[in-house]
């Protein structure tokens, strides 16, 4: 069987979600870097794979899949051995609610395209405001769902989505002391190999000054 190929950018939170899930499910894959800074996502070659000109794209099972949440769901359905969705339907719904709070409500207004349009002079203020706004509400939701992780005591797709968003928040100096549950879950996840290996600073396209072993 052909090795899956992930087209990704090291600091893309959407790419990070997919890396973590591939690692968690112990799926070997090859990474092809796509630099968003250099607009490589807009080249004809990449656009033929992903007409939306975003990352990630995952080539697997003879198809090219786009949109990180769709990819995560596909991997969950086709590689269920190490599940990231609970069996209980109520818990599954809680996980999906948190996933959408991050992937649909938070990340889109803080991604590179939106920030460029908002203007460089407002960049950090814009990012800090929207991440703080989202985390205030996610923290309240976690008060009713969290155990060791976002929903109970098992790692789920909610954790996979949360960790990259915390990284982004730290980059723009969001006061994470206001969100102790989010911070605790993030720290616990980063103790796990699947999350460690997926970290941006361990990717092949990470700049040398940030790279970690």
From TrEMBL:
<dbReference type="InterPro" id="IPR004046">
    <property type="entry name" value="GST_C"/>
</dbReference>
<dbReference type="Pfam" id="PF00043">
    <property type="entry name" value="GST_C"/>
</dbReference>
<dbReference type="InterPro" id="IPR010987">
    <property type="entry name" value="Glutathione-S-Trfase_C-like"/>
</dbReference>
<dbReference type="InterPro" id="IPR036249">
    <property type="entry name" value="Thioredoxin-like_sf"/>
</dbReference>
<dbReference type="InterPro" id="IPR005955">
    <property type="entry name" value="GST_Zeta"/>
</dbReference>
<feature type="domain" description="GST N-terminal">
    <location>
        <begin position="2"/>
        <end position="83"/>
    </location>
</feature>
<dbReference type="InterPro" id="IPR036282">
    <property type="entry name" value="Glutathione-S-Trfase_C_sf"/>
</dbReference>
<keyword id="KW-0413">Isomerase</keyword>
<dbReference type="InterPro" id="IPR040079">
    <property type="entry name" value="Glutathione_S-Trfase"/>
</dbReference>
<comment type="similarity">
    <text>Belongs to the GST superfamily. Zeta family.</text>
</comment>
<dbReference type="GO" id="GO:0004364">
    <property type="term" value="F:glutathione transferase activity"/>
</dbReference>
<feature type="domain" description="GST C-terminal">
    <location>
        <begin position="88"/>
        <end position="208"/>
    </location>
</feature>
<dbReference type="GO" id="GO:0005739">
    <property type="term" value="C:mitochondrion"/>
</dbReference>
<dbReference type="Pfam" id="PF13417">
    <property type="entry name" value="GST_N_3"/>
</dbReference>
<dbReference type="GO" id="GO:0006749">
    <property type="term" value="P:glutathione metabolic process"/>
</dbReference>
<protein>
    <submittedName>
        <fullName>Maleylacetoacetate isomerase-like protein</fullName>
    </submittedName>
</protein>
<dbReference type="GO" id="GO:0006559">
    <property type="term" value="P:L-phenylalanine catabolic process"/>
</dbReference>
<dbReference type="InterPro" id="IPR004045">
    <property type="entry name" value="Glutathione_S-Trfase_N"/>
</dbReference>
<dbReference type="InterPro" id="IPR034330">
    <property type="entry name" value="GST_Zeta_C"/>
</dbReference>
<dbReference type="GO" id="GO:0016034">
    <property type="term" value="F:maleylacetoacetate isomerase activity"/>
</dbReference>
<dbReference type="InterPro" id="IPR034333">
    <property type="entry name" value="GST_Zeta_N"/>
</dbReference>
